[in-house]
Amino acid sequence: MLLTTHLDKAKLKEENNFQPKAAFSKDFQRLERLEKQDRLAYNHDVDRIIHSKPYSRYVDKTQVVYLADNDHITHRSLHVQLVSHFARSIAEDLNLNVDLVEAISLGHDVGHPPFGHEGEEYLSKISVEYGNGIFAHPWQSCRLFSEIDPLNLCLHVYDGFLCHDGGLSDTKLVPNFGKTWDDHFREKEEKLKSPEKNIMPGTLEGCLVKISDTISYIGKDIEDAISIGLIERKDIPKTALGNNNRDILQALKCDLTLASEGKDYIAISDEALNSLKVLREFNFANIYLHPKLKSQSKKISQSYQILFDFLYDDLIKNEQASYIWLNFCHNKPKKYLAGSTPVQLVIDFVAGMTDTFFIRTLESFILPQRIRLHQ
């Protein structure tokens, strides 16, 4: 058969190189058909994600350290790139779909609200108080790119977003192969009811990102903490992985590759997993819960409540003349607006804010402004 297009060649390359259980691009599932399909499906999704506005907002989204005047501290934008780079390098060695790995990696955290996991806790508490249920960022990542700013991504990309947390649950991450859209919609409901539920992705690529997400932040957070004086290198517990990010990543890359090669699951050795758990526990005790990083927690919690109450009351009172309508709702899909309660609209708006925009918006509502008088 004569190969006439770049797409034909790309598909043949996958057929010749991918391992049998990889996610072949020819098997993609998309809810809405694209008018023009001149590239591999997951490669197309990567472009859609990196050119989206939510992806741009990563640059001012907290990873761990917020409100710090230090340009070298990891923000969400760097984190997702680190996940992508680490996972892609392993995917290449395992003959998996690198495009799918990259798409999941780069988009999995768009649902995070301002001030990271701490902000997620505050927003979820408010959502529950307003009778809207729990807020969970994996679910919000799917919602953002399917309803709020819909990109019409492939099923396995959304599935990777939803299932990306819980990577240290076992030495084997076994995919739930053969997922359908109905499975995905059901699992979204389950995730929202129980955010701690550990749902397995439907692909090897999704499982690889799932564990790479955790691996990519543990060592980097240690380096950031050392650079700002929270800990010293001598404080790091001794494990088989080493005491610096470079050694940790190199050791885990080799371990994951050897344990997963030729398998229909992603695996990590007992020793490596136990070492990761030791380092993660150390990070929680000495970094994530450090008093210096929590000095503004009460103010942030109060700010979430004040901002949310103001936006909600304003929306109910002024409707299409409200701040949130003029600055958020006015250009959103009709289907999204029709299917969202006022509470959910405010949650979506706040969750999409960057840290700086959150503060700037709050200041515009609370702080008195200079009065402009006509002469």
Describe this protein's structure.
- The protein is built from 17 helices and two strands.
- It folds into two domains: 40-293, Hypothetical protein af1432, CATH 1.10.3210.10; 297-366, no CATH class.
- 57% of the residues lie in helices and 1% in strands.
- It has a two-stranded antiparallel sheet.
- It is globular.
- The model has no long low-confidence stretch (mean pLDDT 93).
- It starts with 5 loop residues before the first helix and ends in a 9-residue tail after the last helix.
- It is an all-alpha fold and 375 residues long.
CATH fold name of the largest domain: Hypothetical protein af1432
Net shape: globular
**Low-pLDDT regions:** none
- CATH level-two architecture of the largest domain: Orthogonal Bundle
The average pLDDT value, as a whole number, equals 93
Main pleated sheet: 2 strands, antiparallel
Number of domains: 2
How large a portion of the residues is in β-strands, by DSSP E?
under 5%
Question: How many helical stretches?
Answer: 17
Q: Helix-strand pattern, N to C?
A: HHHHHHHHEHHHEHHHHHH
Strand order of the largest sheet: 1-2
Number of strands: 2
**Structural class assignment:** mainly alpha
Distance N to C terminus: 80 Å
Under CATH at level 1, the class of the largest domain stands as: Mainly Alpha
The H-level CATH homologous superfamily of the largest domain, spelled out, is Hypothetical protein af1432
